[in-house]
Sequence to fold (114 residues):
Amino acid sequence: QVQLVESGGGLVQPGGSLRLSCAASISTFSLYIMGWYRQVPGKERELVAHITATSSTMYKDSVKGRFTISRDNAKKTMYLHMNSLKPDETAVYYCNRTTSLHPWGTGALVNVSS
Fold:
């Protein structure tokens, strides 16, 4: 069974940085476009960034220049390095494919607060 395990969340002050990790037990991980999503309670989950099999990247406009998505196919792990975090980016962050979604993991809570 596929498992997606997010880690690296925590409490950070506005303007601070965090690096999230996503460990994926997917045998063909290297073939897939993978994405980072976030969800605030009461709102829909939104795609923040994605990375293709060849490491081309796409970002939501509001995070461009501050967030960096990357992947290590040998480790079946994806990362999201977040800089200059804002309070309204407090959310639970999830990883998954961008199509044919796998069951969601429990996510990583990012709390941006002073």
The mean pLDDT is 96. The longest strand covers residues 18-24. Residues 34 and 98 are 6 Å apart (CA to CA). The beta strands are 4-7, 10-12, 18-24, 34-39, 46-51, 57-59, 67-72, 77-82, 91-97, 108-112.
